[in-house]
Amino acid sequence: MSKKFVSCLLATTLMGLSQVSTGQQITPHSSPPSPEVVKKRLDSMPTRLPRPTPVAPPSNERIADLLAFKAPWVWRIDSVEIERSQNVGTASAPVHKQRFEARVSLKENLYKLVDDPYQSTESPYETAQRYGNTRIVETTAEAGHTHRLHGVATSVYLNGQYNTFFAFENLPADMGRPLNQFEGNILVQGSPEERRFTAERERQRKADYKAHKKAKAMKHKELEAETRRHAVEEAQRRAADAEAAREAAAREAAK
Question: What's the CA gap between 42 and 127, in Å, rounded?
Fold first, then answer.
């Protein structure tokens, strides 16, 4: 197939398309355009589809807003800095991974329960039962305590928006709990209420111990009195048996 024939075929096709687009009637005797016109039309045709416009990853402000919902509520997000960002997806289906450092601070104090010997089930004098609903906690972290939180945000572009998921690398653990997450009557160690409660409980402990010691002494005395009574009764029984034996021997000798 010659180049001239191919050029004529393309020219005829282009002319027909042009006439259809302009509403002209196609006639079998239409003259083909010149090679210069054909080349110009071919050069103007796109050779490939346009590249999709890249979608920008979430900004620092957007990551900070999302962190406020995804991080534990007791932490306040003060600032966020994106250290590195990489699209591990494609231009049309982006998946951005962003390594971040967030400066966070506690909104309120955190506490934990104090080891309390009075709460032991083996505690004597029933002190644990008397004060069983009261708990003493100590402060483990104060409001305003700052921390640098590191992690990776993965943002998947779907339905015209980003869905972001977080993986925290150094989220503090076992720092305690807010005061409203404890049950019972909670007293903070060192507070006036806790000092009064501890003093009263110690006074009651001493009174319980004194009463317990007194009851134990009385029980011991009762046990000693019971032992002496049994000893007297045993001695009397033996003396009676001995007297009966002597009388029986005397009667036998008198026969």
Answer: 98
